Amino acid sequence: MKYKSQKVAYWFFAFSMLLLVLQITYGFIMGFARIGFDGLHEFIPFNTARAVHTNLLVVWLLSGFMGAAYYIIPEEAQRELVSVKLAYVQLISLAVVGVTAVIGYHFNWWEGRKFLEIPRQLDYLVVVNVLLFLGLILITLFKGKRKTTTALVLSMGLLFAALLYIPGMLPFDSQVTDSFFRWWVVHLWVEGVWELIMGGILSFLLIKLTGVDREVIEKWLYVIVGLTFLSGVLGTGHHYYYIGVNKIWLIVGGIFSALEPLAFLAMALFAVNMYRKGEKKHPNKIALFWTLGSAIVSFVGAGLLGFAHTLPQTNLYTHGTLVTAMHGHLAFWGAYAMIVLAIISYALPNMTGRKLYDSPVGRAAFWTANIGMIGMTVAFGVAGVAQVYLERKFKMDFMEVQAEISIHFVVLILCATLFATGIILYIWDFYKHGLPSDEALDIDSDL
Ligand code: HEM
Ligand code: HEM
Ligand SMILES: [Fe+2]
């Protein structure tokens, strides 16, 4: 850490970890409800738990991205953040929106639009929050000594993510139009602009951790950005197959979304190659694990498991089943959760001055969480495929099918327990680092 203002990142990361714990709690509530233990039903029915689970996911990831930007941008731009005070104001307003939304969901104050459940009135607060965040980041970058490709890609990702939130705020009477634009947010986030955010963070981490020249790493970043836009934009069509829009989307969506795994493949190859090439290896092994892990697991979760149901011929059967949940878990985990955990693992020792670079707890956290998540993915997958056959092929009643597959949720809960253990270990390690301090020295801020 070279600039004192980078320390604000710590509090965004801490907030992130708090919400992650809550998200997992709601995951368990749903898992248990699925096997008949639904004691909380009166206050937290499945649909409420689901909305809270997925929204907490989005907010903790966004808080992680914001922390990452507050850490990375000053270092890349080589100057202090323009205002630390406003960054704290922004964190507090983020927490206010998040907490209000989550509490509101328990009182049925939410909209039935998957992932965009936040009531539109609250959306205006989101806008103010995001504008403040972007202002701080972009002005810092603009006034800085240098504008690196890494910083630009990260900032563009964040800026476009904010702009793409707008189509989701527009009111439409038609269900079809509403759905059409909902995907501009949901799809173009995770399979478009968030990939730029991931690419930017990945590139920053690889520069620091492998010691490979910035020029080489940033050339790869261009390739990734290119592949992302080439495939991801028209790839939106894989959500338009049978929703009531023009049939042309069957072909366009099929072809372009089938190309989407290439961007994730490039990211995995990029990370592994830079690691191999790197001579000056950084001692922070835990950060390296999460960085390489993110690049590889995202290829499996987003690339391969996304491909598995992206062609219209398969999606006709799998749409909206637990096959989607299978893919959703490993994709979000690999691409976005793991990259946030990677930047936290890298930044923490630099902010706190405690060099817990390679603790047994840190390694155990990595492996336990990942093996647990892979187990969960398999459990969702088996349940999903069984659901597809029973419900869609053999036309069994929806609820009968759910009873039939509930046994797989026992497996899910076992694997989720392993996963949660890993997360608890990670947070224990986080806590062990202590609070950020101005004296913390960074051995690698000159790269
Ligand atoms: C990190 C990147 C990705 C993440 C986080 C992600 C996550 C998700 C999530 C959460 C859903 C459910 C959305 C909803 O129903 O509202 C979904 C749906 C879907 N994803 Fe992805 N995804 C990613 C990348 C991909 C890629 C690269 C492909 C294709 C190769 C893909 C193919 C699909 C398809 C076809 C659906 C629709 C499933 C259905 O019809 O129910 N995804 N994804
Ligand atoms: C203890 C851990 C977890 C458990 C038990 C759990 C369980 C569940 C369950 C039961 C659902 C609803 C599936 C359905 O519709 O029936 C769900 C949805 C979802 N969860 Fe989790 N989850 C956990 C952790 C996570 C994590 C760490 C992530 C992200 C990294 C995540 C991402 C999602 C997403 C994206 C959905 C929506 C999927 C879709 O649109 O189909 N979950 N989860
Ligand atoms: Fe998509």
Give an overview of the whole structure.
With 447 residues, the chain is an all-alpha fold. The chain has a single domain (4-432), classed as Cytochrome c oxidase-like, subunit I domain (Cytochrome C Oxidase, Chain A, Up-down Bundle). The chain has 15 helices and no strands. Helix 2 (46-77) packs antiparallel against helix 3, helix 6 runs parallel beside helix 12 and helix 12 packs antiparallel against helix 13 (360-393). The protein starts with 7 loop residues before the first helix and ends in a 15-residue tail after the last helix. One protoporphyrin IX containing FE (HEM) binds next to helix 1, helix 2, helix 12 and helix 15. It is found in: Membrane. The chain crosses the membrane at residues 12-37, 57-74, 86-104, 124-142, 149-166, 186-207, 219-242, 248-275, 287-310, 330-348, 369-390, 405-428.
CATH topology: Cytochrome C Oxidase, Chain A
CATH-defined architecture: Up-down Bundle
Helical segment tally?
15
Mean pLDDT: 96
Question: Residue ranges: pLDDT <50 for 5 or more in a row?
Answer: none
User: Could you state the order of secondary-structure elements as H and E?
Assistant: HHHHHHHHHHHHHHH
User: What is the number of E strands?
Assistant: 0
Largest sheet: none
Could you say which overall geometry the principal axes of the C-alpha atoms support? Answer: globular
Based on secondary structure, the structural category is mainly alpha
Q: What is the number of domains?
A: 1
Termini Cα gap: 12 Å
Q: What share of residues is helical?
A: over 70%
Regarding quaternary structure, how should these chains be classified?
single chain
Small-molecule components bound: protoporphyrin IX containing FE, fe (ii) ion
Q: CATH superfamily name?
A: Cytochrome c oxidase-like, subunit I domain
In terms of DSSP E residues, the strand content is under 5%
Which radius of gyration do the C-alpha atoms yield? 21 Å
